[in-house]
Amino acid sequence: MKKLITIFTILLASCTSIKKDEFVNPIFYKTMYPVPITAWKTKLTPTSYISQNDGKKITGNCILLENEQNYIKLKCEMQYPEKNYTKTEIIKYEISINMPPYLYNENEQEIIEYTLENETSEKFSSKVAFSVNTKE
What we know:
Distance between the termini: 47 Å
Helix content: 10-25%
Number of strands: 8
Number of helices: 1
Order of helices and strands: HEEEEEEEE
Shape: globular
Largest sheet: 8 strands, antiparallel
């Protein structure tokens, strides 16, 4: 019985070793480079969002809603300084299962960004593909 309790304690400790303020998969910390020219380079943490292009920058204070190996979901209060307004967005970043033909480098991984309509819906209002260098 004592061994069983010890094993249970070790398993519980290993399951809770990932903090709520850390991504389960470190690939989400890497800079994401947009595949379409119109999108912006993006950098994430569990509490922040930074997207920039041509000297313009959008930032956001975020709350990590879901944190899985293959995807994360953030709720961010975005600040758009060029337009002088803020907007709350739910954003899901998901690792693509199928590597598209434009990613030929074995050190690249595609991540898809979905801007969701709301917290409970998987419907999305926009979708952008990013390339991440896994050796960066």
